[in-house]
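Note to self: keep these together.
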Amino acid sequence: MTIDTRPVLPRRDPELLGQTVVVIGGSSGIGLETARRARSEGAEVILTGRDPERLVQTARRLDALGTAAFDATDPAALADFFDSLAAPVDHVMVTAGDPPYGSPLELSPVQARRLLTGRLVLAVDVARVAAGKVKPPGSLVFTDGTGHRRARRGEGVISTVSVASPMLIANLALELAPVRVNLVAPGFVDTRLAASLLGDALDARRDELRATLPIGRVVGPADVASLAVHLMINTAITGTTVDIDGGQQLVE
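Structure:
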């Protein structure tokens, strides 16, 4: 008789079972992967985005609890959405908002104000309307980036926002406690947005990163989603900015 000596690993219960996660910008990329990961941990998910058709398709695949199509940068629409929630939620993940690329001196005054403040104001707007809807020790998780923290010609707007975001998140964590607030900061992530920004240069960028990053591969949406869900699960983490760029800052 053969005796099986392989270790028996304990079965792990889903760590978001019975919880509800709202993903603002949840129909593609990092938001979609976060919703998928949250579902795998037992959470119900509510997805928002600008494209109603894509939202419906995504919600069907994930068996989402609900969807809402609106522009998250519209404060009135954002407030209406949170007012419409029938019950408190446990976590809110925010991936909405376009990257604020541009040189402040080359933009019009209106464009400069919009890009310099847009992502920061969005975080404040979400914190304001979510404050009474998120149950402690639930969390708000925002996204920014690590690739633009150094001064570079032509990137003054995004580098300024990237440096300011961690301080805003830390302050929001104090304001909203015991609800937790954290920031996930990726470098390059292989998403549809990256493809639209880089166009024909996308494959060259992937090859460059595979050759230079310490991890030897390109960071994908699932990597970032795993971190975002960890920040939801681990109730000891608040006010932090967690980088996830495969070591990109070490080599650039």
